[in-house]
Amino acid sequence: MPQELYLVSLVFSCLALIVSGVTAWLTFFCKGELVMTQPTVVFFGPDGSNFNSPKNKIYLRTLLYSTSKRGQVIESLHVSIQRNESKQNFNVWVYGEKGDLKRGSGLFVPQEGVTADHHFLLPEDGADFKFFAGKYNVVVFAKLVGSSKPNKLSQLSLEITDAQAASLNEPNTGLYHDWGPDQQSYHAHINKKPENEPDIEGLMKLMANKALKSDS
């Protein structure tokens, strides 16, 4: 074999070996990062399908994805919210889709991502947090399996006006912040549910429980 052809073959073999090594590293060894997209909606207000809980919560909808093929395993998520000197952690994590919510106790996030509703509630120790007028700093943290401390996924700056804060003092009232992709900002609006509005979700669960009892 001529020396030139031998050198060309050697170069291509080395390149193929490098490509194989990089592919193996990206597939099996690269840990990557957990990333969260811009939430399309952020909710401040009481918990419950009719906003009828005495305690407030934070709700958002987003896509979580991994930058590596290995994926990421989330141990827990929580939100920290701050207004001036007031700060509160919402550390009870519930996720899923409407009608199929579950308590967060670990979630595998592949490279393709997972889209879900994420509800963050207050701990059951008597703590409460009122939404007054002002600017709020909302930070989402994720604790990954094997990590020593939570990682910051996202930081949002939201605002509640005096009129919106006054409305939030009324029962069955919540505040939605909808993301506007054109202006790259959130637009807030109040949503008030009638006190006599039927709890469809609770009614469906009751009917399902009755059906299970009758079958057994």
From TrEMBL:
Protein's UniProt keywords contain Transmembrane: yes
Residue intervals passing through the bilayer: 6-28
Record keywords, A-Z: Membrane, Transmembrane, Transmembrane helix
Protein name according to UniProt: Uncharacterized protein
Native source species: Pseudoalteromonas luteoviolacea DSM 6061
